[in-house]
Amino acid sequence: MPSAATNAERFRELHRRHRLFVLPNAWDVPSARIFEDAGFPAVATSSAGVMVSLGYPDGEGIPRAEYLAAVRRIAEKVAIPLSVDIVAGFGPSVADAVETVRQVIEIGGVGVNLEDVDPATERLRPLEAQLERVRAIREYAEAAGVPVVLNARTDALTHGAGTARDRFREAIRRARAYRDAGADCVYPMRLVEGDAIARFLAESPGALNVMVRPGLPTLPELERMGVRRVSFGPAASYAALGLLRRVAADILGARSFERLLDGALTFDELNRLARPAHGSGVAQDVPPSGRARAGPRRSRRPSRRS
Amino acid sequence: MPSAATNAERFRELHRRHRLFVLPNAWDVPSARIFEDAGFPAVATSSAGVMVSLGYPDGEGIPRAEYLAAVRRIAEKVAIPLSVDIVAGFGPSVADAVETVRQVIEIGGVGVNLEDVDPATERLRPLEAQLERVRAIREYAEAAGVPVVLNARTDALTHGAGTARDRFREAIRRARAYRDAGADCVYPMRLVEGDAIARFLAESPGALNVMVRPGLPTLPELERMGVRRVSFGPAASYAALGLLRRVAADILGARSFERLLDGALTFDELNRLARPAHGSGVAQDVPPSGRARAGPRRSRRPSRRS
């Protein structure tokens, strides 16, 4: 498995090319491994996806240790760069946020999302307080030798004061300040429409993350506009659970289970997702150049279900 | 929340009616809650679904405590009867299997699946050794005052000796013996075709569980044949991950994320699945008769994502 520093550099490089990349957010091991096998260059956690899967609403209500244990399970099985949503840092202090990043690096994460709403008040953190976190994380990561990619999320468009115009201006102000403080990418929550994205990029050039949602321009359009990164947010969970809801309605209504079988994995395909892509279980044996993502797996064990 | 004994009786009653019911198997909290909200009368864990989601292949490779911690998370959030796949009992001895059932009851499970392949040898356990487990679990559950529904799985059709005919005969022999020893339902793995199911029921009448898979007769046909229970096995995981695979192919191939948005849940819908169906968080306050499953939730919190 490539070193953390190598993976962090690879992940950062994706933000520097003049191309768009899609960052899928997973909620558990097999959802992450499906994305890796498909050929995505990196994968992220969705905080809402992971937390709800464990029975917690999105936010910092889950104990940090329990959240990061779930992240670790994913990190142990994927070789591509893994970015971790750390919400607002898990704790009231700057030191808490840095400690969270320390643990993310220890687990093998090479990117973090940090948002600027204080979970204690559900309001925007004052800009200077958030900048302290951005700077402290940047400094810590450099000192640790793993140049973690910092995606600075701002909720100014939804949580800012004043008119829509005021909130947009606040989001721009924050984006610029976060970039100056060392953020590699900025992520304005609820920046969706093409016109707004274009204006945002004109006023705060640099790597920009937007989230897949209805109303977002197409990927080719986003690329032409100069957007660098499109993340799923919790959309993989929304989609998978939406499918189960349709399956349930079919079975209880029309008494048909066809939808459950349509395009489904096999038992062996599911079971293989519990293992690293190379199936060796000894990640160190895999040279970085040999990380083919969609090839056949080595180890096969008898199927218990087939 | 209804008492464990009440829930166990409700679950057992489903096996006694002359009707078919579908038992969906979940892999985590929201997949279980989706099925509960849809109106299924009970829900089960899929061992493969849960284990792979945690990064373990299906089987007894996962520590029992880690598996049951995931089951507990589900049990804490659903009010309908929950059945737990305990593989072959988690451990070599009869006492191990009984201890697993003790822990399942403690968590709130009211049903168990027990299979007859010994994970240590990957061969069928001798019938008498398996019967000891069935009887010991039955006795323990009665003494504990929670009449757990025991679904006895046999892998004789795939792991038995001799010809297909010999294996079928062995499966019948085991089904009869398991019923006589106190199993509430039998589950012959790989019993799929209509003719074989009809023959099986003729030679071993009683509650029969089959798994959803290609080639299985339709639900109305199964009901006419007298099948009582159809479970998903890991099919919900197969389907959800199959959808993610198609989503990934669309994005990396056609550069379209439409499939990710089609029929998806909203953030609020996802977040609510982390809470019990009634949203009160105080399950004891909910009278059993008031367990409406698809109604609106009470507690709403501001959305972090919308």
Question: How would you characterize the overall build of this protein?
Answer:
2 copies of one chain form a homodimer. With 306 residues, chain A is α/β, with parallel strands linked by helices. Chain A has one domain (4-305): TIM Barrel, CATH 3.20.20.60. In chain A, 46% of the residues lie in helices and 12% in strands. The first copy, chain A, has helices at 4-16, 29-38, 47-53, 64-75, 94-107, 127-144, 156-159, 164-180, 194-203, 219-225, 235-254, 258-261, 267-272, and strands at residues 21-23, 25-26, 43-45, 82-85, 111-115, 117-118, 123-124, 149-154, 185-188, 209-211, 229-231. In chain A, the strands form 3 sheets. Chain A has a 6-stranded parallel β-sheet with strand order 2-3-4-5-8-9. In chain A, strands 1-11-10 form a 3-stranded parallel β-sheet, with no helix packed on it. Chain A has a two-stranded antiparallel sheet with strand order 6-7. In chain A, helix 4 (64-75) runs parallel beside helix 5 (94-107) and helix 5 packs parallel to helix 6 (127-144). The radius of gyration of chain A is 20 Å and the shape is globular. Residues 279-302 of chain A have low confidence and may be disordered. Chains A and B meet through helix 2, helix 3, helix 11, helix 12 and helix 13 of A and helix 2, helix 3, helix 11, helix 12 and helix 13 of B.
